[in-house]
Every structure is written in structure tokens, then in C-alpha cells.
Amino acid sequence: MRFVKDGKGVSPVVGVMLMLVATVILAAVVSSFAGSLSSEETKAPQLAISAEAKYNDAIIVHHESGDPIYLGSIEVRTFIPEGMYADMSYKVDMSKATEIGNDNGVVETGESFKINWNDAFATSVWGLMAPNPGEKVVIEIYEKGGNKPIAKTTAVVRP
Q1: Which positions ≥6 away from 84 have C-beta within 8 Å?
Q2: Contact by Cβ (8 Å): 101, 117
Q3: No. of helices (H) and no. of strands (E), the chain
Q4: Distances in Å between the alpha carbon of 23 and those of 10, 36, 41, 91, 96?
Q5: CA 122, CA 61: separation in Å to the nearest integer?
Q6: What's the rounded Cα separation, in Å, for the pair 107 and 102?
Q7: Phi and psi dihedrals of 58, rounded to 5?
Q8: d(Cα 64, Cα 149) in Å, to the nearest integer?
Q9: Strand partners, 89
Q10: With 95 labelled, which of 17, 19, 71, 131 sits at a CA distance of 20 to 30 A?
Q11: Exposed, middle or buried, 115 (CB in 10 Å: 0-12/13-18/19+)?
């Protein structure tokens, strides 16, 4: 084996190694980019709501703007922020909610849905645990199985 003193024998090896490193880095970048394109992550719907609550009757939730929502794909939670039942939270049975609009199960901008009072709050041995007239009720909408609200509003209970 003979070593070349002028360095001509080392140059091709270094060149091949640099090309290999560049190829590996390029492959990693392309793989990373292609992997992010095939993500099946869905974006949470965006919406704005308002509500009105009438004592011992119902809560009407109005879809003010944003994406249409399918009643079967959301969860509604209500809670009373102050008063006798402060911070008591309740998950609404959405199968009992009634759409006010074109009645196709999808609530779009300008439409509403109704939650009967006894479906919006728990009933205990002492009766319905719900706010009294003048108290506030908070309504939050979640994606089914989600833990972060996609919309939230507060309504003052009317007599």
C-alpha cells in the first residue's frame, strides 16, 4: 500500500463523504416535509354563540357566526358560576336538544338549538339544581371527547 504525499488520493474520499452527507440531509428534509402533508389532524370548528335562559323552561343557544356544527358531534356543558350551586357543572344530553332552524341536525349561522331546563342541569333529592332568575349560567361547547371549549357564553336567567 502506497501513500501519496501530495494529497491527491484523499480528495476523492472526502468528496464522496460530503456527497453522502448532503444526500442523507436532503432525504431527511424531504421525508419530514412529506410526513407533515399526510397528517390526518382535523381543525376544531370556529364559532361564536350567544344564549338566553328562561327560568324552568329552556336555554336557547344561538349560532352567531362561524362554522356549521352538527349536534351529534358536540358536547354542551353548563355551570353556574355563583349562588347556591356555584361551580356545579353538568354535561347536557345532546340527544334531547332540539334544533331551531331547518331541522337537519346541523346548526348554521342564524340558527339555534334548544336545551330543556331539566336536561341542562342535574336533578337531586332536593329537586332541580338550577340557577334562579337573575343568576348567571355559563354555556360551553366542546368537540365530542374534547377538553377545551370551542365556544363559550354566559346568559342571565330570566323569570
Answers
A1: 132
A2: no
A3: 2, 12
A4: 20, 20, 30, 55, 60
A5: 19
A6: 8
A7: -160, 165
A8: 16
A9: 79
A10: 131
A11: buried
pLDDT of residue 5: 57
Q: Which residue, chain included where needed, has cell 474520499? A: 13
- Give me 58's grid cell: 329552556
Instruction: For residue 62, name the pLDDT band (cuts at 50, 70, 90).
Output: very high
In 3D space, the residue among 38, 13, 139 whose CA is nearest the CA of residue 80 turns out to be 139
Cell of 90: 353538568
Q: Cell digits for 6?
A: 501530495
Q: How many residues does the chain have?
A: 159
Task: Locate 102 and state its grid cell.
Answer: 331547518
Does the global pTM surpass 0.85? no
DSSP assignment of 124-141 equals: ETTEE--PPTT-EEEEEE
Segment holding 91, helix H or strand E: strand 88-91
So what's the pLDDT on residue 50? 95
